[in-house]
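R.M. (postdoc): so does anyone remember the format we settled on? I'll just put the structure tokens first.
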């Protein structure tokens, strides 16, 4: 049968209208889809703007587009390796949670009034945890739809992998795997980031799909990353952006909130933020650079900014997503990446989005360093390929679970499309940065006169490095007696005047073959000036940067100079720069009270402290052998304070001496130096060394008594004597009656503590935190309130030939992944002889541990670490109430030793030792090779069995 089509139907007007409208709507719909995913979705800022305008129709569009999920049906049976979290909520708690969510939806935001938690039970890897839960998120997409974002906090200080509080975020809020990729890059740059991963979530037996788990800001987060948990960690106040998007965090301390607080300050103290804000107001470039480096870890900040550039992100802006941690061990802020986001690859590298970034990039040295960080990352395809591989691997790990997530808003095609686009952007972005860093240009002009001046003008995204200034001579010229034609001086202060502040540049040599003088400039680097636009997100403009060098040569009028050339290279890539040369011409030229004291001049320093007198240049000393200080003394950078033998330094209550320069206190046995209280019974503060410029300080035969602690210029000094990030030696000193946490505290430092005496200090005698290279040798510790020696972190640690008696807690405490060698020490009459805890690993040999409560204790104290581990050779454990005590997380290997009651190793004997009062050790047996194996030494004056040293009772 033949079917005949009636073409006359098309002639009916109503049918024409229906067909036209159908085609038009199809075109509009497909056009919207194309525009949304190819234009709007590629720009984070525009995406947010459009969601506000058309957000009401996106659910409907998604519902239609989710029909395409049918094609992903086979993936429903794909395995998933994502961790599983199960939440159980009682009916009454669930009802309260739903009421809270409804209140948030009605308010249009999460506020203090509706930020309520409900109790839950959380199951993970077979363990059950009591916890509490609430919704979280700045925008409605987190709590308006069936799939919501959550904040979870475990109760009673419990942790999962060292994490107590975390967020479960809908993946589309963080561009699916975009934030995980961002964190990966940040970690490769050495930046601190919270833990994050993708997980499966189930609530009351119902699958909730895949979530992005990210650690919440907390004390545990800081401690897990070897930072002080009792320190200030700041973010923007919740209401800043909602109140006014034009508010600037860096203008007002009231716009900040704390996630964690400094326990040494009142809860409402924002002094450190106030100093940062005040520093950003400094308009003098030199003064700003000096001040910002005192309050901000600039090296880390430049990595943080380079990370944003790599991500094409401007999401850590002036009013949100800023996380600032104040490290009170160094007195500086550290920036932490957060909610970075990945922008379009053609996003401008430098634009006006963050006032702190603007200020940093106003310093040419910081621009240079930031660009070096970027170049090191993008100079070839190695990092790009690695990042793309990581991106793909992360997508593969979570996509199966995402495909079958029926609660999510996005449809699967959008997930695949977005991941494809983002991965492509990685390569495109890195290539854009690489090409930008290759851009540098320069021109020169030489003015010849009584005082000649070489003008150099630079531009381009990267700077230029001046390698050589070449003076081409007329044919046949020969220098007489090796004479060099004058000297070049860089006009460092750019005042166009040759003055003492200008810097001598270049070592000259004569090139006979080329008939020219060559002045090597030692990589003098110039960067183009960056002009900050007024409009937010507008691109920085590059402006010609003008620099000048004076050429001083009295014989110029008779000097047969043919031409002046300047050889320059790109300061980032090292490639040669084509220099545009204008012809040379003859012309005629014509906790912060003491913050400002760190860089005082010698004259001002001496004027402030009449008790001091100059010895030689930058070296000063006290003008009397008995000095009383009623005010804290700050020794500025570059000044050396010498304390003469026999000096008695009396400090008033709470008075300290903090040195940013070197201190040399070299007493003698006959004439020791004494540092003590000016008023009996009232403790003074600390003797503190701060920073690398104090390295080289030394204290010999110094007696410190009745000091305490201090919090000065943003740094907390917990010891009567404290050294932070420096190098110091202590020899033949005594430390008695310290009133704070430590008698001596060293942080991130190197040095030697030898032949010294620690007696009757209220708490720890010697506390060493994360040392770089430390020797603790030939010291005596008696009757100290807590630990005699407390070591946390670090590897190059040698504790040798010390005598320890009567410690209130531990003779030697080793924690937080420290790896010391403990050799030939005598530890008696304390609570615990040696404690090894929290992922520490101690190598112990030739020690005598006698009459303690516990000889050797190994345990796990902090949940974010593992247990302790000790390897012990050639040692004696005798007359301790418990010789060896360990928990299930810890291990001990004990060999060739004498232990009362024996031990499981067959090389361990139970032989009662005999002690000699003179401290000599003339013993045989044990493992004679262990010290050579550990330390690479042939022999030491140590041995095992027979006789062992008894404590020397002489003071």
């Amino acid at each position: 049968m033949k079917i005949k089509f009636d073409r006359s139907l098309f002639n009916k007007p109503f049918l024409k209208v229906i067909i036209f409208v159908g085609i038009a709507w199809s075109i509009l719909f497909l056009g919207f889809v194309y525009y949304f995913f190819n234009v709007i979705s590629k720009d984070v800022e525009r995406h947010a703007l459009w969601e506000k305008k058309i957000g009401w129709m996106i659910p409907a569009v998604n519902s239609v587009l989710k029909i395409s999920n049918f094609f992903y049906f086979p993936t429903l049976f794909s395995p998933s390796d994502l961790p599983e979290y199960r939440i159980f909520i009682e009916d009454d708690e669930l009802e309260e949670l739903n009421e809270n969510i409804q209140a948030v939806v009605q308010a249009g935001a999460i506020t203090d009034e509706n930020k309520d938690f409900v109790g839950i039970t959380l199951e993970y890897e077979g363990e059950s945890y009591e916890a509490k839960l609430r919704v979280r998120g700045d925008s409605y997409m987190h709590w308006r739809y069936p799939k919501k974002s959550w904040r979870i906090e475990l109760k009673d200080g419990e942790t999962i992998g060292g994490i107590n509080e975390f967020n479960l975020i809908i993946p589309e809020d963080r561009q699916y795997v975009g934030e995980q990729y961002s964190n990966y890059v940040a970690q490769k740059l050495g930046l601190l980031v919270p833990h994050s991963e993708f997980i499966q979530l189930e609530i009351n037996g119902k699958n909730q799909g895949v979530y992005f788990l990210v650690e919440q800001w907390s004390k545990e987060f800081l401690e897990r990353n070897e930072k002080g948990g009792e320190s200030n960690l700041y973010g923007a106040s919740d209401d800043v952006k909602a109140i006014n998007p034009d508010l600037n965090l860096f203008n007002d301390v009231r716009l900040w909130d704390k996630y964690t607080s400094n326990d040494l300050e009142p809860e409402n103290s924002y002094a450190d933020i106030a100093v940062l804000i005040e520093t950003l107001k400094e308009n003098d470039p030199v003064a700003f650079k000096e001040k910002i480096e005192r309050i901000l870890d600039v090296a880390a900040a430049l990595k943080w900014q380079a990370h944003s550039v790599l991500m094409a992100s401007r999401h850590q802006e002036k009013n949100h997503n800023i996380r600032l941690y104040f490290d009170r061990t160094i007195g500086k802020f550290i920036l932490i990446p957060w909610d970075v986001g990945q922008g379009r690859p053609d996003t401008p590298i430098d634009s006006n989005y963050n006032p702190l970034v603007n200020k940093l990039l106003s310093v040419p040295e910081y621009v240079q360093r930031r660009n070096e960080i970027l170049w090191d990352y993008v100079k070839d395809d190695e990092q790009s390929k690695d990042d793309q591989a990581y991106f793909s691997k992360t997508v593969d790990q979570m996509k199966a679970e995402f495909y079958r997530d029926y609660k999510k808003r996005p449809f699967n095609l959008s997930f695949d499309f977005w991941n494809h686009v983002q991965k492509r952007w990685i390569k495109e972005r890195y290539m854009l940065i690489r090409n930008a860093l290759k851009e540098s240009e320069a021109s020169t002009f030489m003015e010849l006169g009584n005082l000649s001046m070489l003008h150099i003008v630079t531009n381009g995204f990267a700077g230029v490095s001046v390698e050589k200034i070449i003076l081409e001579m007329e044919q046949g010229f020969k220098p007489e007696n090796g004479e060099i034609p004058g000297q070049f001086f860089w006009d460092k202060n750019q005042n166009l005047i040759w003055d003492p502040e200008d810097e001598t540049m270049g070592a000259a040599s004569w090139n006979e073959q080329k008939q020219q003088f060559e002045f090597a400039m030692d990589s003098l680097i110039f960067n183009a000036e960056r002009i900050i636009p007024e409009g937010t997100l507008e691109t920085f403009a590059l402006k010609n940067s003008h620099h000048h060098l004076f050429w001083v040569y009295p014989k110029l009028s008779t000097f047969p100079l043919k031409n002046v050339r300047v050889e320059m290279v790109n300061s980032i890539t090292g490639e040669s720069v084509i220099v545009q040369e204008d012809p040379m011409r003859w012309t005629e030229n014509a906790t912060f009270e003491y913050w400002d004291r760190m860089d005082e001049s010698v004259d001002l320093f001496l004027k402030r402290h009449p008790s001091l007198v100059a010895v030689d240049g930058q070296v000063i000393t006290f003008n009397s052998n008995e000095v009383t200080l009623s005010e804290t003394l700050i020794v500025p950078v570059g000044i050396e304070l010498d304390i003469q033998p026999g000096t008695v330094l009396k400090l008033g209550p709470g008075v300290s001496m903090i040195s940013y320069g070197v201190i040399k206190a070299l007493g003698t046995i006959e004439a020791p130096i004494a540092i003590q209280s000016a008023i009996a019974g009232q403790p003074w503060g600390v003797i503190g060394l701060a920073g690398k410029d104090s390295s080289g300080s030394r204290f010999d035969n110094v007696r410190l008594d009745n000091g305490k602690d201090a919090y000065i210029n943003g740094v907390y000094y917990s010891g009567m004597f404290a050294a932070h990030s420096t190098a110091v030696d202590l020899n033949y000193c005594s430390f008695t009656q310290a009133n704070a946490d430590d008698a001596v505290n060293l942080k991130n430092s190197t040095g030697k503590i030898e032949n010294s005496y620690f007696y009757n200090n209220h708490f720890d005698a010697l506390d060493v935190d994360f040392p770089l290279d430390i020797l603790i040798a030939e010291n005596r510790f008696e009757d100290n309130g807590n630990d005699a020696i407390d070591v946390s972190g670090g590897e190059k640690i040698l504790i040798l030939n010390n005598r320890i008696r009567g410690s209130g807690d531990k003779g030697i405490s080793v924690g937080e992944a420290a790896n010391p060698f403990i050799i030939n020490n005598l530890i008696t009459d304390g609570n615990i002889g040696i404690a090894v805890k929290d992922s520490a690993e101690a190598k112990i040999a030739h020690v005598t541990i006698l009459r303690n409560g516990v000889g050797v204790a190994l345990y796990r104290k902090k949940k974010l670490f593992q247990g302790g581990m000790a390897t012990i050779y050639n040692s004696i454990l005798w007359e301790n109430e418990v010789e060896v005590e360990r928990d299930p997380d810890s291990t001990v290997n004990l060999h060739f030793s004498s232990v009362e009651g024996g031990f499981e190793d067959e090389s361990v004997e139970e032989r009662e030792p005999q002690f000699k009062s003179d401290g000599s050790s003339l013993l045989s047996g044990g493992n004679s090779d262990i010290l050579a194996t550990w330390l690479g030494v042939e022999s030491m004056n140590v041995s095992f069995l027979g006789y062992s040293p008894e404590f020397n009772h002489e003071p």
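R.M.: ...and that's the designed sequence above, right after the tokens. Also worth knowing: Residues 37-48, 918-924, 941-955 have pLDDT under 50 and may be disordered. The first strand starts at residue 84 and ends at 88.
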